[in-house]
């Protein structure tokens, strides 16, 4: 080995290692005029045991709701800060409700008579929101049917992305408050926290685990009943290359004993699946 070779190797060994650029944080890529279409399938079962007014014996009932809908989010505008204004409309909807007595009621937009009854909100903008590149709900401009408070608990695209690119296992939080307006409540507000966990990537999708919890549950079990549907847990899938929400698989479950006195019980179970239909 020549003296030059030894010098060259020593120099290379001492050369500083250039830092690799940090990976880009995942972000929504809003585009004015773009329409994002999603299919939602939700199944909900409510079991309740209450005391008969006359005999004071427990009576158990069960109700089941099955909802399938197709909704469209149209990007109306994107400002200089990357905040998009989106309008949501429902293109299709079918709902089946099995009542405690066993009878079933079905509403289907594919049927002309049902579509006529839905004319007020079918294929018309019913929600207008402003959302930034992280998925944060900046503003609810319009929400028909009192959905504004619900949108804080159930974000339009189901997650808020982290400030920086997360490593596997990295967590971040989103606090939010949910106000119970009549008839569910009297205007009281409850604080929640939503924890997100990076579960890694697969097939180009960032998989984010979601856990929702009440910061301070109400003192009585009965007061918790209308809050249970907000306690979603599961996975959300984000298309990192396209910069859009792709899908989610969520569930909310709770069993509340003595919600209406000794011997009563409230059991809630709901599953939620949403998939992007964009080509």
From TrEMBL:
Keywords: Signal. The keyword Signal applies. Residues 1-19 form the signal peptide. The keyword Signal applies. This is DUF4412 domain-containing protein. It comes from Gemmata obscuriglobus.
């Amino acid at each position: 080995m020549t003296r030059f070779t030894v010098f060259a190797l020593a120099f290379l060994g001492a050369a500083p290692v250039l830092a690799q650029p940090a990976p880009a944080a995942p972000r929504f890529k809003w585009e004015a005029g773009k329409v994002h279409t999603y299919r939602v399938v939700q199944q909900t079962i409510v079991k309740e045991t209450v005391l008969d007014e006359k005999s004071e014996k427990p009576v158990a009932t069960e109700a089941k709701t099955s909802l399938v809908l197709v909704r469209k989010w149209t990007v109306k505008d994107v400002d200089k800060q990357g905040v998009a204004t989106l309008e949501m409309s429902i293109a299709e909807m079918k709902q089946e409700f099995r009542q405690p007595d066993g009878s079933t009621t079905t509403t289907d937009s594919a049927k002309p008579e049902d579509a006529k009854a839905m004319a007020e909100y079918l294929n018309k903008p019913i929600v207008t929101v402003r959302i930034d590149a992280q998925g944060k709900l900046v503003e609810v401009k319009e929400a028909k049917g009192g959905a504004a408070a619900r949108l804080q608990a159930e974000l339009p695209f189901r997650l808020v992305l982290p400030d920086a690119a997360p490593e596997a296992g990295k967590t971040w939080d989103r606090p939010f408050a949910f106000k119970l307006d009549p008839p569910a409540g009297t205007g009281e507000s409850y604080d929640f926290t939503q924890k997100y966990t990076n579960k890694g990537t697969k097939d180009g999708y960032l998989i984010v685990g979601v856990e929702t919890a009440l910061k301070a549950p109400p003192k009585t079990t009965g007061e918790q009943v209308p809050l249970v549907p907000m306690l979603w847990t599961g996975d959300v899938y984000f298309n990192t290359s396209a910069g859009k929400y792709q899908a989610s698989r969520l569930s909310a479950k709770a069993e509340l004993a003595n919600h209406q006195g000794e011997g009563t019980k409230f059991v809630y179970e709901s599953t939620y699946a949403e998939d992007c239909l964009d080509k």
